[in-house]
Amino acid sequence: MIKVSIKQQGMSLVELMVAMLISLFLTAGIFTMFSMSSSNVTTTSQFNQLQENGRIALAIMERDLSQLGFMGDITGTDFIIGTNTTISSTAVAADCVGAGLNNASFPNLQPSHFRRLWGYEQGVSAETLACVSPNTNTDVIQIKRLIGPPATVLTATRYYAATESTEIVFFDGSGAVPALLNSRVWEYQHHVYFIRDDGTTPVLRRRTLSINNGMNNEEQLVEGIENMRILYGFDNDGDGTADSYMPAQNVTTLMWDNELFQRLVALRVFLLVRANEEDQSYKNDNTYTLGDKTIGPLNDKYRRKVVSSTIILENPILINL
């Protein structure tokens, strides 16, 4: 019988250590690639979020602000109670009353222009709205207008206005439509835009007017809007285009009330948009310019982006009304 001897041979210690070292390098490479891929996904996702939130916020504000001062067939005419203006509506119980003699939701009997527009910077301007509590160093803007198209079905909790070329009548949606010859009926709205945090997330908000709740109706519009700056554009030479832009604190009482030759014809809106979540791999030491104002560096881990738009007012108030 022939015996066959089979010799078993394994890896030497040196070979084993070399194999382990190679495996370690391969594993480290895989983890590095995974980390880079994860970081790229986070970065891309946050940039998309910033762009989308900024786009939505500007779209909402631009659609509303461009129509401020629209008052149907009587657009461009000042309101004088007892002459061309009648208020048959329920008084606003919880109103937002801005600066000036005539700056509540509805015109009053004060011998002053009814303000369709007013704004300020929280913590900087001397006069503010008591109805809202915005974040410090953010702008607030208050507007009033009729909302089109003309209403055919009325909502009981809304305010409306019947207008023709020389007269306007404000009334409740639950009441009878005023018998105003050749008039059309529109929903009336008073809006206030401002920014306030929800926990740690800044949110663009809007107050709206209703009969049952006054100006206490608050909408959360877009998350991540951290700061808002509005510059007011005035036409100084009557050509219909803005010759100068200025922040709210530089706009005088006469300019708000259109009692000078200057006429407000445009707004520049700047929004600082912030990601909702921190990125631990990122440090934000950037400086951001919002018109005439600079913010930063904030030295945190949130990504940010500035978006802006110039809004041409389609219903500028006439000069020296």
Explain how this protein is built.
This is Type IV minor pilin protein PilW. Keywords: Membrane, Transmembrane, Transmembrane helix. InterPro entries: N_methyl_site, PilW. The protein is α+β, with helices and mostly antiparallel strands. The chain has helices at 13-65, 253-256, and strands at residues 85-87, 117-121, 139-147, 159-164, 167-172, 184-198, 201-210, 214-223, 225-235, 244-246, 263-274, 288-290, 293-295, 304-312. The strands form three sheets. Strands 1, 2, 3, 4, 5, 6, 7 and 8 form an eight-stranded mixed sheet that branches. A four-stranded antiparallel sheet has the order 10-9-11-14, covered by helices on one side. 33% of the residues are buried.
- What is the string of helix and strand elements? HEEEEEEEEEEHEEEE
The N- to C-terminal Cα distance equals 126 Å
Mean of all residue-level pLDDT scores? 89
Q: Characterize the biggest β-sheet.
A: 8 strands, mixed
Count of DSSP strands:
14
* Rg computed from alpha carbons, rounded to a whole number of angstroms: 30 Å
Instruction: Provide the structure class.
Output: alpha+beta
Number of helices: 2
Label the overall shape. Answer: elongated
The residue ranges in which pLDDT falls below 50 over 5 or more consecutive positions are none
Strand residue content: 25-35%
Percent of residues in helices comes to 10-25%
